[in-house]
Here is the input.
Amino acid sequence: MYSRWFATLSLMALALPSLAGDLTPQERPRPRLGIAAMPRVAISPTNVAFTARLVGGAELEDFHCPEVEWNWSDGTRSVRLSDCDPYEPGADIVRVFSATHRYRDAGQYAVTISLRRASRVVAAATVTIEVRPGLPGRY
Here is the structure.
């Protein structure tokens, strides 16, 4: 009885890796996008550095060579178009995106990064920063 049970478990263990490899791109886990700002609280005027990271998930085509849009929440935005080789299965995706932005006015800003493929958002993340009033004329 134990030998039949062990044989069944062994066959299941051998089948699991092939089952994972047979997942369609829609079934494979998607990376999560997170964002950090440094500093999170500053005195105006100030430059703030932002870093966004794709964490976990599979190397999916949706995340290969995305258009990167930063919405600075001060009425401006930046867009970076990528120039990459065509996607090939198994290719690594870029997982770190960074930018710096200057804030001249005090306020709270909800900064959003969006990754786009074919005009659709595949991932987005937001971080809130606070810029406090500085000394007048300090530009």
Observations:
- The chain has a mean pLDDT of 85.
- Strands lie at 32-38, 41-43, 46-55, 67-71, 77-80, 96-103, 107-117, 120-132.
- The first strand starts at residue 32 and ends at 38.
